[in-house]
From TrEMBL:
Its cofactor is FAD. Signal peptide: none annotated. Residues 49-150 form the FAD-binding FR-type domain. Residues 1-20 are annotated as: Disordered. This is PDR/VanB family oxidoreductase. GO terms for molecular function: oxidoreductase activity. Residues 277-359 form the 2Fe-2S ferredoxin-type domain. The lineage of its organism: Bacteria, Bacillati, Actinomycetota, Actinomycetes, Mycobacteriales. It comes from Nocardia fusca. Residues 1-10 have a biased composition (Polar residues). Pfam families: FAD_binding_6, Fer2. The keyword Phosphoprotein does not apply.
Length: 359
């Protein structure tokens, strides 16, 4: 049989000796569809530009040492869409790259809003507070989302409510989720913790929410049982706050029957079960010892403070470098980032005693 000849249709069981009608119809439809698609030009995939030049159009002090910034596209274009929990990688004029949660309205694509707490020894936050006036241009990568809010009515699990816990500047990631839950008619509760109300951002905005669902707490930390008072078997918990509180809340949630625990860290997670290894930096001609309890990124920054990094948690890929020799122990949060012959300095470690990096 030649490659272009057609296979005979099977005989009908009800009409012996004649072709099956269903198979005849199927062949007719298939031939028609094939004729259409072979005559239709398939466009090449269009590249999506995720780097945006933004201009600072407003700065406002929203709490003690917390500056809110409104950012608009420098060319006036509509900004890429984002979902609650998303963040931007901001490239500051100095070249410093830092991540900031989007805390505005996702439906308003004319601008992005971020809020930055000033940290005395934090180069990025000091630059933003002191050297980023209205009119300054910055580059943004993203938006990206490693902390997405899942609407309960769209989730696969049986979820009846959501509990939000935010501490300090963690409100920036949580606030858009609260607005989304309220707009969707979700049963939600928010606990917002801070040292004092003068340190807590966006209290005016939070004050316009349902007061029966919001608890503002200042001073000594609430007992964990009080924080989880509204958590039941069909409740999702979203947390953003300092590592010590995260550890305690996560431990308590793990001992309960819940519909899930979702969180975002301010700082890199501690190294768990690490062992020492050596890094050879080919271009810099450095040999660096990485201690069992330190990340490769932290060790390299002691010698090369300008090394690129952002999230320090293994989900943005900023600190990826090429590995020239040695075996990598991959610890990133996403298998999508596990490219061959590379490593993420913030999380990945060495399977072998030595790694040689193109750095």
């Amino acid at each position: 049989m030649s490659p272009h000849s057609r296979t005979p249709l099977p005989s009908s069981l009800k009409r012996p000796g004649k072709p099956d009608r269903m198979m005849s119809a199927y062949r007719l439809v298939t031939r028609g569809y094939t004729a259409i698609i072979t005559r239709t030009a398939i466009p090449a995939p269009e590249r999506v530009d995720r780097d945006t030049t933004l201009i600072v159009t407003e700065t406002r002090l929203v709490a003690e040492n917390v500056l809110s910034l409104r950012l608009e596209a420098a060319d006036g274009a509509t900004l890429p869409h984002w979902h609650p929990g998303a963040h931007l990688d901001i490239v500051l004029p100095s070249g410093t790259v830092r991540q900031y949660s989007l805390c505005g309205d996702p439906a308003d694509r004319s601008n992005y809003r971020i809020a930055v707490r000033r940290i005395p020894d934090g180069g990025g936050s000091v630059e933003i507070h002191d050297r980023l006036p209205v009119g300054t241009r910055v580059t943004a990568h993203g938006p990206r989302n490693a902390f997405p809010f899942a609407y309960p009515h769209l989730a696969r699990a049986d979820i009846s409510g959501v509990v939000f816990i935010a501490a300090g500047i963690g409100i920036t990631a949580i606030l858009p989720m609260v607005h989304a839950a309220a707009a969707a008619g979700v049963d939600w509760h928010l606990t917002y913790l801070g040292r004092g109300e003068h340190t807590m951002a966006f209290l005016d905005e939070i004050g316009r929410l349902d007061p029966g669902r919001v608890r503002i707490h200042t001073g000594p930390r609430l007992p964990i049982e009080d924080l989880l008072a509204h958590v039941g078997p069909r409740t999702s918990v979203y947390f953003c706050g300092p590592p010590a509180l995260l550890h305690d809340v996560r431990t308590a949630v793990d001992q309960r029957d819940t519909a899930g625990f979702h969180f975002e860290r301010f700082a890199p997670p501690p190294v768990d079960g690490g062992r020492a290894f050596e890094l050879h930096l080919r271009r810099s001609a450095y040999t660096i010892r990485v201690a069992p309890n330190r990340s490769a990124l932290a060790a390299i920054r002691d010698r090369k403070p300008d090394v690129a990094y952002s999230c320090q948690q293994g989900f943005c890929g900023t600190c990826r470098v090429r590995v020239l020799a040695g075996e990598v122990e991959r610890r990133s949060r996403s298998a999508f980032l596990d490219e061959p012959d590379t490593m993420l300095l913030c999380t990945d470690r060495a399977e072998s005693d030595h790694l040689t990096l193109e750095l």
